[in-house]
Amino acid sequence: MTTMKEKKEWYLEYEININREGLLGDVSSLLGMMGINIGTINGIDNSRRAFIIKSDSEEKVKRFETLLQEIDDISLRVLREPELKDRLAVRHGRYIKQDKYDKKIFRFERYDLGLLVDFMAELFKEEGHKLIGIRGMPRVGKTESIVAGSVSAHKKWLFISSTLIKQTVRSSLIKGEYDKDHVYIIDGAVTARETNQKHQELVKEVMTLPSVKVVEHPDLFVEASDYVMDDFDYIIELRAEEDQKIEYDEMKKKTVKSKNNLNFGDEFGGFGDGFGDGFGNGFGDGFKPF
């Protein structure tokens, strides 16, 4: 009895030098002749094409790479085991923008919400501790993206602090709310100025759980806590448009004051995200504000 070898995936991307008729067919035929399957295919930036390919032999893939380099109409750019950013590029037909110097910073615009939700969902599906910060000005879509990402990843979400619908400041969790599969959401602006010691103790407890934690306004969270930016595994920046500045000057003034245990009432009430922009009421009946 012969056993089937498990097929492994690779990410293939090439630049189109001459976009002649039948070019894609030639590449696909070459893959077929080599016994390599095409899992997913998409165009990227009008001049590139990306694939997820599958094969039970690394030698076949290496031979395919050699043959591909003989086709003058294209230039091979990437052939490697697929990373998360590769899978999303094939799925959405565009790349995630990543900071040139700090590789844990990813940038999105408002029109990218679908891509952002997909990116978050993939991060949320990974097991174990993960600390994600999301920067952005008011009402750009931060909270709705986190919740939509949780829904897409089939994860329950819990607000530890929030200004969504009404201000939320939790001081405790009940037994069923401790779960490694939950996504815990913290509004860094609200938590930074909160003087309730039980809330601060709960935040510290949540941060030790082997689960996903998402902190909105991570800079303000760090400003008034013992955590540092290096504690974050990913930083997401969300803007209404590419050139929008994310400025926290006024909010930072309040955060610094919060260290002196001053109460600012509802001054942060205007920093919640709009919830009806782009996702409607599609989150199901399970969402209830605390």
TrEMBL record:
Domain of life: Bacteria
Coiled coil: none
Record-annotated DUF3388 domain positions: 78-263
SUPFAM superfamilies: ACT-like
Regions crossing the membrane: none
Protein's UniProt name: DUF3388 domain-containing protein
